[in-house]
UniProtKB/TrEMBL annotation:
One of its GO terms (biological process) is protein maturation. One of its GO terms (molecular function) is carbon dioxide binding. Belongs to the HupF/HypC family. Coiled coil: none annotated. This is HypC/HybG/HupF family hydrogenase formation chaperone. It comes from Desulfovibrio piger. InterPro entries: Hydgase_assmbl_chp_CS (IPR019812), Hydrogenase_HupF/HypC (IPR001109).
Length: 83
């Protein structure tokens, strides 16, 4: 199973690449934006998988996805039940 993570565009780079911040972490990646129908702007959210932005998200969608991922992580770590 693969997992695509919401990320925020923090810097646009050459050749359709962008530096993105993964979730709310201090992890930054460089990802291709070439699969998106429209180029993102700095501050936009995208779903990133395997080095490619797969689609854009609204800030609300990104926060909902991140909250769901946090719940799953907490459940796996035994801190909180999933149901």
């Amino acid at each position: 199973m693969c997992l695509a993570i919401p990320a925020q565009v923090v810097e646009l780079q050459e050749q359709g690449m962008a530096r993105v911040r993964v979730g709310e972490s201090q992890t930054y990646l460089t990802a291709s934006m070439l699969l998106l129908p429209e180029p993102p702007k700095v501050g936009d959210y995208v779903i990133v998988h395997a080095g490619f932005a797969l689609h854009s998200l609204t800030p609300e969608q990104a926060q909902e996805s991140l909250a769901a991922l946090r719940e799953v992580a907490e459940a796996i770590e035994g801190q909180k039940p999933l149901f």
